[in-house]
């Protein structure tokens, strides 16, 4: 073969979904150039066998469709399986249309069932006018044969003279305009000889019922003993009309998306691919554009069970934006296909005065494909993207979660949900660095107490008993697969030693743009409550069922939260100010408090989805603080240890998980003696938590809420609440999105002024409208030094450093324990301390590896002394 002659290159997703034709409403196309004379023909006969059907298609479910012997095979006999065509849609125009497909029946046992349909769907549409919504959730106009051989056209059945589905048949659908409707003719043929089996004519259909996607349908259930058998194979799918929409930008795969981080001149990028690993000779390349020419730096093959490839580039020059491209080459039988996915490695904002990070978490499918999120966040133009857990839920995309069976099917089940995440949000991080950390639902848990990676007891199923047993319910290899797809692009782990079952870790330090992030795993090492609380607590799914049990009396439990390994990391990180770090930030799945209330009668949070949504400005009465041990308010003593550790570098805390946006200040010994934490709201909220503490609410208003102030959570932890985004009735549809306090956060770090400003936006809000549409209480600005709120007992001499730009000062007590460490914003700093003792002060010029140590410096209640330091 002449290689150059037979190479076909296809660029993937070159337009932004929010603004391109890839997100159009099916019936309201104004761009006539999109309406084309379409002669679509499937090309499966030229593709090799693989566990995917190609980039033009979306399979429901992913693991249920594959290419085999030139056919798209539905390899399960079950209900509601369909294969959606992504690149061609029908509008509401009434024009002639012909659709045909050859079908081979593979499971003969369906003769024992009576319901279902084998054929095609026209006019598939979903909750939103978008081809992706239709592809995942679409319902359509069914045409095909049922198990008894009858022709099914939507809800109508017609005799065909058959008593079962033939082993092979061709299904042809002919539609002709008839006034404002269609006259439909269905023909069933023997595909080899074109022998007529049945014709059904003069069926009249409203054209509106046919607007949307085209799909193949495999909707037949059998008994369990035959359900795992392949149901049918499809080939020669043809669609012909002179007035359809065609958009090749709607291909999805074989490159789905990519995410990257840059840390200490090391670029790490992970490309998420479709299941093409079975194709011999597949090639995956990372390329960068140099002087207008794409140059390959790495060439590899797809091998990982997560269908992801991780690339590492050392000595990265971050002085300018650099275009990157993932190129995948797939040898077909008749030609070679090259697919490309482009993005940008952004210039690191080292010299930028302010660096902003967009914060996301808790993403169900209610708003899929979530066009509004990218459209609004793009107006804010953040420098960094943060996804802090629950990138999806077990039920994302329908069908639930597959927890047992073929190991690779479990991976593909996960991959379908993960691909939906990328389909919604890849434009957020196509051109920006992005940190992603998995939470409990990412590993198919409602709650997870990892207990250092142990295997959970699933002998009685995968429900609450398994979760209460501690550890991971899913196989260790699968957990590692999840972590690889979501975190392999993060900087290298601080200590890569695996935990039990050889499950990997990813807690790490990410330094970018002068912001030093500690990325924690606050689930993996945590103790299961049932193992450390006495039996009389009656723990169920991390909740105490015994109303008379006072958890506050068990504050000093021998239980684990972060674990010693992560505390060792934090101790190191608090003093690491290399690579221009100016502000420290902790990222974790959830915050170190329990900012939630429930009705007094509730023993757990099962009632949360059914609780009434209050009107705007209404104060909900009768709630009490929750004792949810999935939160990091428990174990309380280890919560205090974590809070005290991160305040030693004046770290700000950003988290997700709680489904409730909040801004609090931690307290250990006293309210307000520690740092601040922002928990972002949920993107799509299945668990609309709330915070309505018992306070005097007589003067409560939406804009001046009564709950602001000092509180003690259900475990006895002190917190000072400054803002919370409670659910309320917005009157905006869909209510299941907008009445559940959904949205995202934006945290802006001003390195010059050393301030941190947090914004909290509802999904419905337009950021260009000003701050008035933010959740009540936001935006909030604090100073970096506010993150160690403990009041000074005494002061050390003012330190004045000459000839050094922004030195680092570290203060140690008389036991050589770190009190705190911070990069000075100017050349003077007045160190506060908490005892009238002697201290050691270390001044560092980190960039030039110089330091000076001052020992036995006495603290005084009033200290007017100035120490001038010169490191030359």
Structural summary, described in words:
Keywords: Signal. This is PhoD-like phosphatase. This protein has 872 residues and is mainly beta. The chain has four domains: 13-250, Jelly Rolls, CATH 2.60.120; 255-345, Immunoglobulins (Immunoglobulin-like, Sandwich); 354-787, Purple Acid Phosphatase, chain A, domain 2 (4-Layer Sandwich); 794-870, Immunoglobulin-like, CATH 2.60.40. Helices cover 10% and strands 35% of the residues. The chain is built from ten helices and 50 strands. The strands form ten sheets. It has a 15-stranded antiparallel sheet that branches. Strand 24, helix 3 and strand 25 (384-387) form a beta-alpha-beta unit. It is globular and about 100 Å long.
Shape type: globular
Instruction: Using the CA coordinates, give the radius of gyration.
Output: 30 Å
The CATH topology of the largest domain: Purple Acid Phosphatase, chain A, domain 2
Which percent bin holds the helix content? 10-25%
Q: How many beta-strand segments?
A: 50
Estimate the strand proportion. Answer: 35-45%
Low-confidence stretches: 1-5, 15-33
* Arithmetic mean of pLDDT: 95
Largest sheet geometry = 15 strands, antiparallel
Domain count, please report it.
4
